[in-house]
Automatic annotation (TrEMBL):
Gene Ontology MF terms: 4 iron, 4 sulfur cluster binding; fumarate hydratase activity; metal ion binding
Catalytic activity: (S)-malate = fumarate + H2O
Cofactor or coenzyme needed: [4Fe-4S] cluster
Enzyme class per UniProt: lyase
Lineage: Bacteria, Pseudomonadati, Chlorobiota, Chlorobiia, Chlorobiales
EC number: 4.2.1.2
Xref: InterPro entries: Fe-S_hydro-lyase_TtdA-typ_cat (IPR004646), Fe-S_hydro-lyase_TtdB-typ_cat (IPR004647), Fe-S_hydroAse_TtdB_cat_sf (IPR036660), Fe_dep_fumarate_hydratase (IPR011167)
Protein name per its UniProtKB record: Fumarate hydratase class I
Amino acid sequence: MLSLITETSANLPSDVRTAIQKAIGAEAEGSRAGLSMSTIALNIDMAVDRVAPVCQDTGMPTFFIHSPRGADQLFMQQEIMEAVVEATRTGKLRPNAVDSISGKNSGNNLGCHVPVIHFEPWDKDDIEVRLILKGGGCENKNIQYSLPAEIPGLGRAARDIDGVRKCLLHAVWQAQGQGCSPGFIGVGVGGDRTSGYELAKKQLFRRVDDTNPDADLQGLEEDILSSANTFGIGPMGFGGKTTLLGCKIGKAHRVPASFFVSVAYNCWAYRRLGILVDPETGAINSWQFRDNDEIKQMAEGEGIPLTGREVVLEAPLSDEVVRSLKVGDVVMVKGAMHTGRDAFHHYIMHHDLPEGVSVEGGVLYHCGPVVLKNSDGSYRVTAAGPTTSIREEPYQADVIEKLGLRAIIGKGGMGPKTLAGLQEHGAVYLNAIGGAAQYYAACIKKVTGVDFLEEMGVPEAMWHFDVEAFPAIVTMDANGNSLHREIEADSAHAMESRG
């Protein structure tokens, strides 16, 4: 189980690599989309070389197990839990299990109903274990429809295959760059609200290049994939030719009163693998989603392509420097950087920073890193990509004003309240490449301190970094411009034209 977790976290499946490689070739070199895909390719290679998480958000470990007659499921559950604890200790998993009421992080990825383990019997002798690590950013873009319904931009969706089609077009559109596009969707048509989502997630265990045995669903899969890639959302929501890399649809019988369409959205960091285990010895007999001819090396060079026109930003930033930046500028951040995400934003609305800590003119990074403690008491960052920023929309403008921040780094963009705050207080939003956890970890040269570690846990703590050559793109500037607003509007028109 430890081998399965480690490999799933660090090494993307063969079919996913092939799909990403095609997307890299589709985007123009030097474009925002091209820069994103180059970073993604390099990050994939770095994760394998370091045996470290492709993305810092390793999600909620979810296992689907087929077991033969007489197998000891309690024993298997205990072995999985022990493997999860060890994988967390060594940084293959980020400690993500948080008590829903107290907010306390367990620190070892164990908790109420965590990890998630689904057991199903089968008539074979081997034990099949499949694991998916689906980060919170893309999990938050899951969506469920109850038909008939009015679908924004597409009109009425009836209880038929065209109604399902409208749901899926909208499901891809609403994810924008917040789910780390280009992505994949698994779809469950029918069932009840609970089983529909489970069926959707199970579709993510199909190969990207397989053929649906149901001709109608196969045609719909192809239609959605083709249509979604005309939206112009592109990698990270920066605009581009590739928005969706795969669409897999399953169906289940339903009761007459209900017609649910459940969509599980998965980011490009599509981490799912499977193994067949010998029930007598516990040995791995074979791996699933691993091809002999898979693409081993994703990146063509040793770094992302730069033009020499990048703007170097080093805190403290002045109002003049910030207001000179415009949407589309590529920046390289150096020097002091501080992390702050959900728990931090809620806390700082009601409290001050610890004594002696100041971020005036500084850079705040929406990031929940994987951090390990060294034997001498210092810390090292092993994965540090951006988290989805829109969750901080209720707080961000106020936090910028209170702390005197000049730059916010995250992914997926933010809304009108933050945009107004950026303009009023002279700050910018910088979009980092979602999922590029290894690439950004390499930009962090030192952990200079940490606050709120005991209270908030590793992902939510306020980490203080010294960084170098940390690349991001200005997507919301201090002059009221937002690339995210433009892409959302343009892609809405494109979606409506496909409806």
